[in-house]
Write a structure and sequence with these properties.
Elements (H helix, E strand, L loop, with lengths): L2 E8 L6 E8 L5 E4 L4 H11 L5 E3 L5 H4 L2 H8 L2 E5 L11 E3 L4 E4 L2 E7 L8 E5 L4 E5 L2 E2 L2 E2 L7 H12 L6 E4 L4 H11 L3 H15 L7 E2 H7 L1 H4 L3 H6 L2
Parallel strand pairs: 3-4, 4-5, 5-6, 10-13
Antiparallel strand pairs: 1-2, 2-3, 7-8, 8-9, 9-10, 11-12, 13-14
Helix pairs in contact: 5-6
The structure holds zinc ion and fe (iii) ion.
Zinc ion binds next to loops.
Length: about 240
């Protein structure tokens, strides 16, 4: 099934979050990933003429859940998020565990637990569509801060991402490419890295998201994914 992914920039210029509105092409169902704030998400839903059935929340931080209550009241939708953070996520209806799969319409979603940024953080993986929503674990050319977990947990979470197929497109929770790019270029000067940088700068200059990038490319260019030794990774933190 092919899906339409609509990034919605939230908290622009401050935190540059992305909410995503996912619509299946037959328009049977739609959902929101990380409703950072309500107004821009509602505007986009109206533009697309969709009523989302649910919100999938990656983790409890305010910049990922700020729109939950308002969107729930407006669309009577269900809020799904990590069971481990169920008391912290506003409006949560259904807590899910690592490996748990569920359907939204005909769209199949798999929960992948990825602690480190927060202790219950999850990734939303669409195995049939080869899409991955990484919240604040993986960004373009950088990774999320470690707030609740340990660097060892973050390492394990990144290894899970690395084990997914190269042709998976990933969508991060923020536009942090401008932060990641200079260091990534310092670490790696391959043809591939330079073309990634060129495309990223072009997209940013047009105020477009750098996402999606394939995991295959990210694994070759993101300095934190390129580290092959857990001890070296842990020295960064
Ligand atoms: Zn966060
Ligand atoms: Fe965030």
């Amino acid at each position: 099934m092919s899906l339409q992914i609509n990034p919605v920039l939230c908290r622009a210029g401050v935190m540059d979050n992305y909410a995503y509105i996912i619509v299946d092409v037959k328009r049977d169902a739609s959902m929101v990933i990380d409703a950072s704030e309500a107004a821009p998400v509602i505007r986009k839903c109206e533009e697309l003429s969709v009523r989302p059935r649910c919100i999938l929340t990656t983790h409890h931080h305010f910049d990922h859940v700020g729109g939950n209550e308002e969107l729930k009241a407006l669309y009577h939708l269900q809020i799904i998020g990590p069971a481990a953070e169920q008391n912290l996520i506003p409006g949560l209806d259904k807590g899910v565990q690592d490996g748990e799969e569920f359907l939204v319409g005909k769209m199949r979603v798999k929960t992948i637990s990825a602690p480190g940024h927060t202790s219950g953080h999850v990734l939303w993986y669409f195995p049939d569509d080869k899409l991955l929503f990484t919240g604040d674990v993986l960004f373009n050319l950088c990774i999320g801060g470690i707030f609740e977990g340990t660097s060892g947990q973050m390492w394990d979470s990144l290894q899970k991402i690395k084990s997914l197929p190269d042709d998976t497109d990933f969508y991060p929770g923020h536009e942090y490419t401008p932060h990641g790019l200079p260091y990534a270029l310092k670490c790696e000067n391959s043809e591939l890295m330079r073309s990634y940088a060129q495309r990223a700068r072009q997209r940013l200059s047009e105020h477009l998201p750098v996402a999606p990038v394939s995991l295959g490319l990210e694994k070759k260019c993101n300095p934190y994914l390129r580290i092959e030794d857990k001890n070296i990774f842990e020295q960064y933190f």
